[in-house]
Amino acid sequence: MPNASMHHVVNLTDISLRAAKRCCVAGATEAAEGACFDAELHLHFDQICVRASEPSGTSAALLHCCTLDQVEARDRCLAGLPRSHDGDLEVAGVGAGSKPPPPQAPPEFKGDICKEHAEENARLYDWLVWEFSLRYPLTSLSLPVMLAGGYITGVTTCCLVEQEHTACLAALDEEFKNKVAHKIFKAKKQCQLLKSMEKHDFQDMILVVVSQQSPSLSVDESKRIALRVENSTRNCCLKHADGFCLYTKSAIHDEICLDKGILSHHPRLAQCCRSLGSPRLRCSQGVTEKFHSILDTSSLLSLEEQCRFSHDQPEEMHD
Predict the structure, then answer these.
(1) CB of 87 within 8 A of CB of 130?
(2) Which residue has the higher pLDDT, 308 or 99?
(3) 228 and 294 inside one domain
(4) Which of 165, 186, 206, 211 lies deepest, with the highest CB count within 10 Å?
(5) For the purposes of burial, counting CB atoms within 10 Å of the CB of 264, is it exposed (0-12), middle (13-18) or buried (19 or more)?
(6) Domain end position, chosen among 143, 165, 186
(7) What does the alpha-carbon distance between residue 90 and residue 65 come to, in Å, rounded to a whole number?
(8) Helix (H, G, I), strand (E, B) or coil at 89
(9) Where are the beta strands (DSSP E) in the chain?
(10) pTM, rounded to two decimals
(11) pLDDT band at residue 289, thresholds of 50, 70 and 90?
């Protein structure tokens, strides 16, 4: 297991344990615990910005995040920055146009991956999530989680079911290289689609998907999520033309889960947001109660446009 990735996993573990000791108090309400964990995360980012204020060649990207007025916007901006080899946010030397590493399966382990799987499965999973997140820094959180979960499932089969572990693991690596390469291809198609469409047309297309995925959202809430998806995808396509800019249905639910205003009005969605990856997607898709007026796309799009966007949604949005 590479020292770089494990170092970061250990750092995250230390932060989480510190937060758990402070926040998991007997008798505390769920809301109080959640607020405490949020405060711990804000404190962690506060410390990063204090370091960034020192005259040490701080990157423009990091300075930009730390100068944002709203704490939530700052934390979200910092969470999306590239990491250094030791897993920390790079305080210096990060160019705005830095590119993610090329697509590939997780690197080979120096030790016995089946032994690692048997003895430290949770740590192996956390490391895989970090590795995928590091390679694709501008994608949604659910996608690295899904990739890590799929890889762990393959490792489990190879180590516990198949007799030839080495051959099975080699085939798994090749399968993942092909799977990730396919997602990269779809991401490039999505960037081409975005560039070929007018800004409002792309937003309308995303808006239809948002209304289908989360019918309980109000018109304004759906528009807000669609705008975020459009902006994030556009920024990714501009900065990382060969990067991992794929926005799927999972990404839409990730954006919803980052909006505390929406979650405060939709408690069942808030429950879904406690999970990640496929479980979050399945849970969120099942939330259909209507707290506000439902998005009526007929007031926004012509019948012809509705049919076209609903029928011809790009393959990239069907994951």
Answers:
(1) yes
(2) 308
(3) yes
(4) 206
(5) exposed
(6) 186
(7) 12
(8) strand
(9) none
(10) 0.50
(11) low
Domain of residue 160, CATH code: 1.10.246
Instruction: Give the chain's domain count.
Output: 3
Number of H-type helices and E-type strands within the chain? 15, 0
d(CA 223, CA 221): 5
CA distance 140 to 80: 10
**Structure tokens of 213?**
């995925």
Sign of CA dihedral 119, 121, 127, 131: positive
> In this structure, are 207 and 312 located in the same domain?
yes
* pLDDT tens sequence across 94-122: 333 334 444 444 554 445 778 777 777 77
- Nearest alpha carbon to residue 224 among 177, 256, 246: 256
Q: Mean pLDDT in the chain?
A: 68
Looking at the DSSP bridge assignments, the partners of residue 92 are 58
C-alpha 185/C-alpha 188 separation (Å) is 5
How remote is the C-alpha of 94 from its chain's centroid?
A: 21
- Across the strands, what pairs with 58? 92
CB 147 within 8 A of CB 37: no
pLDDT of residue 64: 67
Is 305 found in the same domain as 213?
yes
Q: Verify that 196 and 310 share a domain, yes or no.
A: yes
- In 3D space, the residue among 47, 55, 56, 51 whose CA is nearest the CA of residue 92 turns out to be 56
The domain boundary, picked from 149, 169, 186, lies at 186
C-alpha to C-alpha distance for 144 and 132, rounded to whole angstroms: 5
Q: Over the stretch 129-188, which tens digit does the pLDDT of each residue have?
A: 777 766 665 556 667 777 888 888 888 888 888 778 888 888 988 888 888 778 778 777
